[in-house]
Amino acid sequence: MERRRIISDLAKKIAEEMKDFRPLKIMHLCGTHEDTVTRYNLRSLLPKNLKLISGPGCPVCITPDIDLQKIFFLLERKNVILTTFGDMARVPFEGRSLFYYKSKGYDVRIVYSVFDALEIAKSNGKPVVHFAIGFETTMPSTALAILDGVENFYVFSAHRFFVPAMEHLLSLGDVRIDGFINPGHVSTIVGVKAYEHIKFPQVIAGFEPEDVMLALLMLVKMIKNGEVGVKNEYVRAVRYEGNVKAQKVMNEVFAREDWEWRGLGVVPNSGGAINEKFEDFDATKVFEDVFEDFVPKEDAKKRACRCGELLRGLIDPTDCPLFMKACTPKTPIGPCMVSFEGTCNIWARFGIQKF
Ligand code: SF4
């Protein structure tokens, strides 16, 4: 009851602030925020002139097909153990996924952490390639595993730094956004200071429904007052400096490169390439001869998938004609329906949002 009262009070305050104000569009940047928003149907509590949209906060969703194609290409040519997380193994390309390869006898193993992959390498003579995805939240673990690496352990890094994507999104200019709810998990690592240079209204939020509603209220007030910069609603977990130890290992092992994101194109300084110093663990260097023959393709089946526009905040899942028709959680076409952090998947699981 207490929670219901707090949320209802926050909804009333948001409505008061928004009364007679111009329409606003706020973007959150984390799949877990979309889960909270949809699970608790928070959009139904917002006034008509305040729209909350999801952005590129799902790591599986923003990983472009080219990374997946390269993994398939390597798997078909080298006798390796391929490890990755469950969601990534379900993403289809031309009707195949890593689970498909597993069913055909390839040694694909689902792990819960990069350290599971490292353990497999330590107890097995075969080369182990870990397909590593995720933002600053998971990069420090991959960095530690590399620092503790063994001879037959390699990482194919699809890691991406998140903060450059926020700046890039604003520079694209095709979606009008008035404020960001910054990602809670990423913020525990990068800290409040990582966002200070972005002159745009931002609030770091936790994952309870009260957190999201309070962050929205804070943002509306910032926008009305013409304030830019970052405020921290998630004070119980996010410090100004962030996790300095995690940042140190991450910056030691990864170098920033300009890499492609699904929906956003090439984002400057966002790619988590493995530093030259650790190239003995870098699958792209160790298997360079294999990748020399790689030619990217387009998946015709995915042409109609609008996941990219969704990640850029241009559409809702229901704007995609395939949503819950050809594309469902059991028959996903794009990664936004595959991943538990994907907006299409979340809307499918919790019901289509009513505003
Ligand atoms: S419903 Fe499926 S096809 Fe449509 S955007 Fe989402 S993932 Fe892509």
Defining key terms:
355 residues, 17 helices, 11 strands, binds iron/sulfur cluster, alpha/beta, Rossmann fold, five-stranded parallel β-sheet
Order of helices and strands: HEHEHHEHHEHEHEHEHEHEHEEHHHHH
Low-confidence stretches: none
Average pLDDT number = 95
Topology-level CATH name of the largest domain: Rossmann fold
List the total number of helices: 17
Helix content: 25-40%
- Label the overall shape: globular
How is the largest sheet built, in terms of strand order? 2-1-7-8-9
Largest sheet: 5 strands, parallel
**List of distinct ligands in this structure:** iron/sulfur cluster
Structural class: alpha/beta
Task: Explain what the structure shows.
There is one protein chain. The protein folds into three domains: 2-58 and 163-232, 3-Layer(aba) Sandwich (Rossmann fold), CATH 3.40.50.11750; 60-160 and 246-291, 3-Layer(aba) Sandwich (Rossmann fold); 306-350, no CATH class. It contains 17 helices and eleven strands. Strands 2-1-7-8-9 form a five-stranded parallel sheet. Strands 4-3-5-6 form a four-stranded parallel sheet, sandwiched between helices. It has a two-stranded antiparallel ribbon with strand order 10-11. It is α/β, with parallel strands linked by helices and 355 residues long. Helix 1 (2-18) runs parallel beside helix 11 and helix 8 packs across helix 12. Bound molecules: iron/sulfur cluster (SF4).
Short description:
By secondary structure, this protein is of the alpha/beta class. The protein is 39% helix and 17% strand.
